[in-house]
Design goal:
79 residues; alpha/beta; three-stranded parallel β-sheet; 3 helices
């Protein structure tokens, strides 16, 4: 059986994330729980989390990306 890895995932718990507005327009919450649920639904075994674009000069800090990955139980890895 083939394993599916999503090589480009975004999620955020940061209000300054520029993609949240677009997620909401598509009925998405843009949370870790939502991402993990979608991964289960489609049998995706891993996701590569990319730092979301923020409104402002600085990207999301690495410690926040690492924390989201740690909360995923190994399903999501940071880039």
């Amino acid at each position: 059986m083939q394993k599916i890895i999503d090589a480009h995932v975004h999620l955020s718990e940061n209000r300054g994330d520029a993609l949240i507005r677009f997620a909401r327009l598509n009925g998405l919450r843009y949370t870790l729980d939502e991402l993990l649920g979608t991964m289960r639904k489609y049998n995706i075994v891993r996701g590569l989390l990319l730092s979301p674009p923020l409104q402002g000069p600085a990207p999301l800090s690495n410690d926040k990306i690492i924390a989201l990955c740690a909360k995923s139980g190994g399903k999501v890895r940071g880039s």
